[in-house]
Design brief:
252 residues
Length: 252
């Protein structure tokens, strides 16, 4: 004989707890939205990887390709020109293998191209003294550089409050080809040029195509959906005699 007759185990009975129901009604849609958000992120990362694989298989771009309007994101390129080592940008807060550092960027002048190309030479470690900027040996004269074209895809931007640079080198919190026009006061090609490790002038290069793989986002989505299902089950148990009723039925 049960001590709570209104929750008899002979049949399923619903005994709602208003506070728990309100909490569940608030949490359930949130968990579902988070799950679908992770699925959207997985699709976005997969599109980026597909574009990377497609453009990486194309022949290296030359100067003539830069004058067209085709999609050059992640496209390999061989460019011949002269780097401006006197006006160097130092991109701050770039962590590699857990160590803080900078990325070094310089403007590339190419014969026959009216715009400059912003070249990312790679990463260097930062000194413990924030006032001490890295000293990078310049790449003099005209050189053939090998790398990949890249257009910034958004992300976090550290507001450094810097406009047109008057004193070089300049340490900046974020960079894009469009912002390079503001910093240098000159026209720049719409894509940055990231050097390959075996290119002349390369420092420590290598950039991940995506920070998180699509499969991991899918895994996160599954976790959110499972949590939503668990919430439903716990809500049923907390607001009814479901557990006792199932136990009674399994014993008969």
């Amino acid at each position: 004989m049960t001590t709570e007759p209104h929750l008899s185990t002979q049949r399923f009975q619903w005994q709602p707890n208003k506070k728990l129901l309100v909490l569940s009604l608030c949490l359930f849609p949130l968990l579902v939205v988070l799950g679908f958000w992770q699925l959207d992120r997985a699709d976005e990362k997969q599109r980026i990887l597909d574009q990377y694989n497609t453009n990486q298989q194309a022949p290296p771009a030359m100067v003539s390709d830069l004058m067209g309007d085709s999609n050059l994101q992640y496209r390999s390129a061989w460019l011949v020109g002269e780097l401006d080592s006197q006006r160097r940008l130092i991109l701050d807060n770039r962590v590699k293998n857990g160590r803080p550092g900078y990325e070094i960027l310089e403007a590339l002048s190419i014969v026959g191209l009216g715009q400059k190309v912003l070249v990312n030479r790679g990463w260097v470690p930062a000194s413990l003294d924030r006032n001490q900027l890295p000293e990078i040996p310049p790449l003099l004269g005209s050189n053939q550089l090998r790398g990949a074209l890249y257009q910034t895809l958004g992300g976090y931007r550290l507001d450094d409050g810097i406009g047109l640079v008057e004193q070089w080198p300049a340490r900046v919190g974020w960079i894009s080809a469009a912002r390079a026009e503001e910093l240098y006061g000159e026209d720049f090609f719409a894509y940055q040029f990231r050097l390959d490790q075996d290119s002349q002038g390369a420092l420590n290069t290598g950039w991940p195509t995506v920070s998180v793989q699509p499969s991991k986002h899918t895994g996160y989505a599954v976790q959110w959906f499972v949590m939503a299902m668990v919430l439903i089950i716990m809500t049923l148990i907390a607001n009814s005699n479901l557990a006792d009723w199932l136990r009674q039925r399994s014993g008969t």
